[in-house]
């Protein structure tokens, strides 16, 4: 095995000796063998000057005679009139004869191939008598016709080297085949050198010529073991097509775009590397996660199949993590796929993603400013206007940093004598705490605000505890349907139960359920899965003791119901004079949902087929896996 630099030196040295030799250059398909040879010739003109040269692609050649003729014609084209042997056009009579048979002039290799079957013997006998001291490159061996066996090719190479004193380079790839098997058995008898190109990174670097993004190519190359030069050329073409749309793309944006292109093109162009196709890539790595998409892509309830899918996803994610940990199809993914599949860019998607990325880039710039300030503080060498710069930087970190760090900034300003700035910053942080606690119960937990525990110098924890306490009391006093909607959506997205809202959630009424049922969700295709999740929420695992009376054989329910945990059995007393029954809360909810679904059919008649089919398959939502 050899790297590119060593291969270049070796090949040039062999050519410069002018001694007869046969060299095989091999490597995996697309690694850049032909590209390397062309670069060597272009960069070493002095070493190749004056040589008779024939480059012949074996693509489609079907006989030894056709191969000999192609070599001869290419040599004739490559020499100048100063060569005494070739000063006279020795092929002129032959070409004239072939022209009379084919009805066209013969001038190039492709022209000659038109009449190969008519005049191969004539051409071969004329030109091969003059073929000496020639450099011959045979390429595309794997694309030859099956009627041209490898044994005849190697026999010709052996003849050219030993009898005609030529230098021959044969370029072939190492894919398993009958020809490869014959080559391996006989290469020691025919070739002086068998060189293997197994490291094409330097070729790719010269081809890409982009210092800013090359480290990403390099990481992909080293970790994903993809050496195909054509693959990287195609990736670069897509990348250039995207970045030309805007001059304001940040370095962060460009890097993310390139990472996404590399992964998506890998799956699209060379699916065997990860052993998945584009549909599987979307299933595994869409932003909403695998579990929420299994029921969409798998049209059955085979849990074993779902387990196999998860296992395969884990394997693919493990392989990808070497290049892109926690890869998800988001952000620039839509733009990349649009260009690859539709050969066009959706300008609206592009602008939306670009604007979001500019926000991210601004966050990074803010972080850089903060790091400079922290360095100044700990180095005991605070710069000019340090307190003012710290205050302005801290304002940008509200909502991005934990309360421990924000406490540190407030205390630093206070100790430096900037009391007003410290109080101002503290007030803005408290405003943010109060707003987020009011918006979402996610922010009721200290883990949302403190990543590594609470430090002794913290000034916000007691305030947070009080704000959460006040918010819970407020919710208990009034039924906040927006908060209930958010709680059900959170359970659908992440499985979080929102136990702090159980009382409000379990007492939900039919009118409020309608708002919960039809609230917007991230992926509207998952609406059925969302409704199933509502029915499965633990808050509905309750039984209601319902007192009933019989009037004209009609059951009338008492409006005052007692909620009892589903596992609670003791001390449930039923009056013999006031018969009672037990009903599941989820059954009541199921009835409401069916009613709301039928109302949706009336509102939107085009939903009838989808809703009625689902109700039929799920036995009116009793089988939640359907």
Automatic annotation (TrEMBL):
Residues 9-174 form the KAP NTPase domain. It comes from the Bacteria. This is KAP-like P-loop domain-containing protein. Pfam families: KAP_NTPase.
């Amino acid at each position: 095995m050899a790297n590119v630099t060593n291969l270049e030196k070796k090949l040039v040295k062999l050519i410069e000796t002018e001694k007869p030799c046969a060299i095989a250059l091999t490597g995996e398909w697309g690694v850049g063998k032909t590209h390397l040879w062309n670069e060597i010739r272009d960069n070493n003109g002095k070493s190749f000057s004056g040589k008779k040269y024939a480059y012949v692609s074996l693509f489609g050649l079907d006989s030894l005679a056709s191969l000999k003729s192609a070599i001869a014609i290419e040599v004739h084209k490559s020499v100048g009139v100063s060569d005494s042997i070739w000063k006279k056009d020795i092929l002129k009579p032959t070409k004239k004869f072939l022209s009379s048979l084919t009805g066209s002039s013969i001038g190039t290799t492709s022209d000659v191939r038109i009449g190969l079957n008519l005049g191969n013997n004539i051409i071969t006998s004329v030109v091969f008598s003059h073929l000496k001291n020639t450099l011959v490159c045979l390429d595309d061996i794997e694309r030859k016709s099956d009627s041209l066996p490898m044994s005849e090719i190697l026999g010709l190479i052996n003849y050219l080297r030993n009898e005609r004193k030529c230098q021959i380079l044969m370029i072939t790839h190492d894919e398993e085949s009958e020809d490869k098997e014959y080559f391996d058995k006989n290469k020691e008898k025919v070739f002086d050198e068998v060189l293997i190109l197994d490291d094409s990174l330097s070729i790719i670097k010269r081809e890409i010529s982009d210092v800013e993004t090359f480290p990403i190519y390099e990481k992909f190359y080293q970790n994903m073991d993809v050496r195909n030069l054509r693959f990287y050329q195609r990736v670069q073409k897509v990348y250039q097509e995207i970045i030309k749309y805007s001059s304001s793309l940040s370095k962060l944006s460009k890097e993310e775009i390139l990472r996404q292109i590399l992964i998506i093109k890998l799956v699209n162009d060379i699916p065997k590397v990860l052993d998945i196709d584009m549909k599987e890539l979307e299933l595994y790595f869409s932003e909403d996660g695998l579990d929420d998409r299994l029921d969409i892509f798998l049209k059955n309830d085979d849990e074993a199949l779902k387990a196999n899918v998860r296992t395969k996803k884990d394997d693919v994610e493990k392989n990808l993590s070497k290049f892109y940990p926690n890869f998800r199809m988001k952000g620039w993914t839509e733009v990349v796929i649009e260009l690859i599949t539709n050969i066009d860019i959706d300008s609206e998607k592009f602008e939306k993603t670009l604007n979001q990325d500019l926000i991210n880039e601004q966050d990074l710039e803010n972080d850089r400013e903060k790091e400079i300030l922290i360095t100044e503080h700990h180095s005991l060498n605070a710069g000019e206007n340090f307190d003012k710069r710290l205050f302005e930087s801290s304002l940008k970190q509200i909502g991005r940093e934990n309360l421990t760090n924000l406490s540190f900034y407030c205390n630093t300003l206070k100790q430096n004598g900037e009391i007003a700035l410290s109080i101002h910053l503290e007030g803005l942080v408290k405003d943010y705490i109060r707003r987020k606690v009011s918006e979402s119960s996610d922010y009721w937990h200290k883990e949302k605000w403190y990543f590594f525990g609470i430090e002794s110098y913290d000034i916000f924890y007691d305030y947070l505890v009080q704000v959460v306490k006040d918010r819970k009391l407020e919710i208990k006093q009034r039924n906040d349907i927006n908060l209930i909607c958010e709680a059900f959506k959170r359970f659908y997205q992440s499985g979080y139960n929102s136990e702090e809202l159980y009382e409000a959630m379990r007492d939900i009424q039919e009118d409020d359920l309608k708002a919960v049922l039809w609230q917007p969700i991230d992926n509207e295709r998952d609406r059925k899965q969302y409704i199933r999740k509502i029915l499965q929420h633990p808050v509905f695992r309750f039984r209601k003791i319902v007192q009933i009376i019989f009037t004209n054989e009609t059951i009338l329910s008492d409006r005052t119901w007692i909620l009892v945990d589903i596992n609670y059995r003791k001390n449930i007393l039923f009056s013999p004079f006031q018969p009672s029954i037990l009903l599941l809360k989820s059954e009541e909810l199921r009835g409401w949902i069916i009613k709301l679904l039928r109302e949706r059919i009336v509102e939107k008649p085009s939903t009838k087929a989808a809703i009625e089919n689902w109700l039929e398959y799920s036995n009116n939502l009793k089988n939640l896996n359907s």
